[in-house]
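Minutes, project check-in
Item: structure for the 181-residue chain
Input as provided by the requester:
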Amino acid sequence: QELEKLGLRDDVDLHVYEVPVEYQTVQRLIPALWKKHSPQLVVHVGVSGMATTVTLEKCGHNVGYKGLDNCRFCPGSQCCVEGGPECIDSIIDMDTVCKRVSALGLDVTVTISKDAGRYLCDFTYYTSLYQSRGRSAFVHVPPLGKPYTAEQLGRALQVIIEEMLEVLEHSEDKINCQHEH
């Protein structure tokens, strides 16, 4: 909500959605959003009670979903996409994003993770990565006030997403350049 108030740079259309903590809704909603918007990038943000930093997740996992969602449902297969790869990495270089954002001297700490927790955050991330062939990102944030305010988190997300877009555009420029030779 804070990011929606702040917005992103002028050449970026920002669409904000709240995704329910429900496996079946995620399986329906994420592909529908990709189809509707055909975005350059989707960035998911989830609250983690264990997080003490703003955490950039590198990858999503397909199997190991045993926790019941808000509808008391759990996929019988315990996986996102039957037959899908075990793990999908984001095409965004999270190490680069983390370094760049940290160098800006914001009043939040940004870290990297390779495990989004095998619950709805990880499930959503994997579903989105699978749908987008890696053009997704996931950011875990701590609960409000523990230790950051909504304003601090909103500003951090704004900077992180702008850096992600920068990294994505730069890597696409390199790819396009290689295709021309």
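Outcome recorded: Confidence is low (pLDDT under 50) at residues 177-181.
No further action items on this chain.
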